[in-house]
Each structure stands twice: as C-alpha cells, then as structure tokens.
C-alpha cells in the first residue's frame, strides 16, 4: 500500500560524525557551508515524474544562473563509466552515482559560497539519496544491505546536515506508460521511509497541481516561507 505523504516538516534526528577518507577527496566535504543558511532545493521523484521540467521552469522563473543547477548526473555517470540498466542493481553503479552527485553539489556550493545575492544557492533534479532509494527498491538479493552501505558512506553522512536544512520537493507523478521503468509507488514508499529515517523534511506536490505554473508557484511559496 502506498504511503500517504503529509506536508511535514519532520523533526531532524541524529548527529553526523567526523568525515573520513573513503577513497575520494572528501576532506572538508561541504562542511564549510553549514555556518550559514544554504538555500538548496532538491526535486525528488522516480524517472519520468517531471523533475527536469520543473527544474528548468524554476531556473527561468527565478532567473537562476544555470551553473547553480545540478542535472543529468546519473545519465552522465552511466555514459562515462559504461554502466547500463542491467547494472542498476549493483552497489558499484549506485555508489558511483552517489559520489558524482555529491561532488557536483559540492562544486556548486564552493563556487558560490560567498555570494548571497541569488534566490537559491543550488537547485538539483536529484540528490545523493536517490541511489540509496533505488538500491532499496531492487528485487535482486542483498538490496537492503546495499542500501545500508550507501546510507552509511562517510561522504553521504557528511552531507546530511545540509540536506536536513534544505528544501526537498517530491514532484507530482503521472504515469504515461512509456518512459518509467520502475513502479513509482514502490519508489515513493522507499523514498519516504529513507527521508524520515534520516530526519530530512520534505513536501509533496499534489496531483491537483498538474500545471507547470502551479508547481513553480508551489516551490516559490516554500522559498518565501523560508525567508519570512
């Protein structure tokens, strides 16, 4: 049964320990950004849920520099590393995507760490949570263990304070029967469970907001509430 999402926010839980080197350059991984309010928006949802459409509309509406927009990370990883959809159930693919997403986010935040004149520091059409969610939805043996390994990765644990202060929006989904390869209900159930476990607040765009203008206004209202 699909879990019904309320509007939150949810209480943040847990503390993050000292980051260690896990094989990539993670020294000081986005920790520099925690001493000020980072205005970050992450759009969530399974494939074909309209994340990119909403993000592109937000970029235009907010007049956001596209260099602040993190997109197509998973697609680029699959292309550069030679992964295919047959590798989706492997730890290697999901971990590589997670690390690439974290590096992309960190690059944007470092580039603009001293500039507070924009409505957003960073906008992304996924987050480092997505690979863990996909790992958990796998029907292959060992799915729960792969998800646990991803969620306990030192670089991922280091970014949790940022995520817990960010705006996560789960976009409304309409199954067109064409592009989506996973059951959105299964994805959402795992997504909501992981977000609550990590103490990350999130909101959901309801199906009554099918128009892109309504969805953009919804996110803008969230940002205005944060600034109030």
Automatic annotation (TrEMBL):
Which SUPFAM superfamilies would you find in this protein's record?
P-loop containing nucleoside triphosphate hydrolases (SSF52540)
Pfam families, A to Z? AAA_28 (PF13521)
Highest taxon of the lineage = Eukaryota
Q: Which Gene3D superfamilies match?
A: P-loop containing nucleotide triphosphate hydrolases
Q: Which InterPro entries match?
A: NadR/Ttd14_AAA_dom, P-loop_NTPase
Residue stretches making up the NadR/Ttd14 AAA domain:
41-206
What is the recorded name of this protein? NadR/Ttd14 AAA domain-containing protein
> What is the originating organism of this protein?
Postia placenta MAD-698-R-SB12
């Amino acid at each position: 049964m699909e879990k019904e999402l309320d509007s939150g926010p949810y209480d943040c839980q847990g503390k993050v320990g000292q980051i260690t080197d896990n094989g990539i350059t993670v020294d000081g991984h986005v920790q520099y950004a925690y001493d000020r309010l980072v205005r970050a928006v992450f759009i969530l949802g399974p494939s074909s849920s309209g994340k990119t459409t909403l993000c592109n509309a937000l970029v235009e509406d907010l007049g956001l520099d596209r260099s602040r927009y993190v997109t197509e990370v998973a697609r680029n990883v699959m292309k550069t590393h030679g992964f295919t959809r047959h590798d989706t159930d492997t730890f290697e693919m999901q971990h590589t995507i997670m690390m690439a997403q974290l590096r992309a986010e960190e690059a944007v935040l470092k580039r603009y760490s001293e500039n507070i004149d924009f409505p957003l520091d960073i906008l992304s059409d996924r987050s480092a949570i997505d690979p863990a969610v996909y790992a958990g939805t796998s029907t292959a043996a060992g799915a729960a263990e792969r998800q646990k390994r991803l969620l306990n990765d030192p670089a991922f644990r280091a970014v949790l304070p940022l995520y817990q202060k960010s705006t996560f929006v789960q976009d409304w989904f309409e199954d067109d029967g064409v592009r989506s390869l996973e059951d959105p209900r299964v994805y959402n159930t795992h997504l909501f469970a992981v977000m609550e476990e990590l103490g990350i607040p999130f909101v959901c765009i309801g199906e009554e907001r099918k128009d892109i203008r309504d969805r953009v206004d919804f996110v803008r209202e969230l940002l205005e509430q944060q600034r109030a």
